[in-house]
Amino acid sequence: MNIIDELSWRGLINQQSDEEGLRNLIDEKDISLYCGMDPTGDSMHIGHLLPFMTLERFARAGHHPYVVIGGATGSIGDPSGKKAERPMQTMDQVNHNVEALSNQVNNIFSDFTMVNNYDWTEPIGILDFLRDYGKLFNVNTMLNKEIISSRLEVGISFTEFTYQILQSLDFLTLYRKHNVQLQVGGGDQWGNLTAGLDLIHKAEGQDAKVYALTIPLLLKADGTKFGKTAGGAVWLDPKKTSPYEFYQFWFNQDDKDVVNLLKKFTFLSKEEIDELAESIKTAPEKRLAQRTLAQEVTKFVHGEEALKTAEKITDVLFSGEIQALTTAEVAEAFHGVPSEEIAADPINLVDLLIAANVDKSKRQAREDIQNGAIRINGEKLTDTTLEIDPKTSFDGKYIVIRRGKKKYFLAKVK
């Protein structure tokens, strides 16, 4: 199957500059292609996964992906999708983010070539920039691109206005140095991608075989944007979103969305995905499709061992056998739950519930204990006179408290 056919089946194509030309080129030879990422933060989130997993699909088909980290473009800000100017980062922030993102990409995508557009942008003087590149851009054409026109009412600085030129320069540079012929990007990048095509054709001639392909914005079945949770973005950095939280995000997807996500975020075959789609109809309570999705994406991003830990935590929390967790696993499992610090001294159970902010009053705490609603480290306790010694569980670092069936709290021992 031609890679374009696979991308189409998976719903990963929004716009193409020349489908027939790109398809013919891919049939002729293995190509080099790229996707860019600006260092606006020090971690990717799952919104970054789709374009890079698309590059990975090309790599598995024998092609040669490049990733451009925007040390230059990230220092001025992309106007795309923004209602106002992006706050300017210091160069120290940019450089820190470049290093962090480069390491992250290399850890997940082993076959990508990493480059930084600061390397070829920084040596260009202002006069050379204006004469060699600015002269090739028509302001009227730039103003008509949605990426710019959407900002005209509120205003756009000259700095962000020139972003389109710098991104186009990336494509031209990669084409000249590495024969990169395809740029992949998100749907909101279409204006920048086509500007790169225009620049190459003006600088290298109309017969230059270069192409652009964008990936659609991913929406859930209810029409809302995919990838956000109540706690914010789902990060690829395990310190920001633990592998367990990451696993749970995918496992908790709705039946209406999971097949679409399996197509886009896994490398499973059509036959395998069709079988999982059938399982949603015949045995939805087993959540086999969701479990497979969570396994595949977690393993791809975080590795086999992180997946095993995430699944262990999931099973332990389902069974309530909290003591089966290690101290590190407790920290990961309860990373996002309400937590309070307590002293290392033995403490009465009622006082513990107050100190951990589980209950607001001693009366309510006593009622919860006597009614069997409280579990400490997985054990149901009903005696209000009990003393709890924090040093006896999880290396003296944590006490896990459950109130009712699902409400967890974490006491962190000082």
From TrEMBL:
Signal peptide: none annotated. GO terms for biological process: tyrosyl-tRNA aminoacylation. The lineage of its organism: Bacteria, Bacillati, Bacillota, Bacilli, Lactobacillales. Homodimer. GO terms for cellular component: cytosol. The keyword Nucleotide-binding applies. It comes from Companilactobacillus kimchii. HAMAP family: Tyr_tRNA_synth_type1. L-tyrosine binds at residues 34, 163, 167. It is found in: Cytoplasm. A motif ('KMSKS' region) lies at residues 225-229. Its main location: cytoplasm. One of its GO terms (molecular function) is RNA binding. Keywords: Aminoacyl-tRNA synthetase, ATP-binding, Cytoplasm, Ligase, Nucleotide-binding, Protein biosynthesis, RNA-binding. PROSITE patterns: AA_TRNA_LIGASE_I (PS00178), S4 (PS50889). ATP binds at residue 228. This is Tyrosine--tRNA ligase.
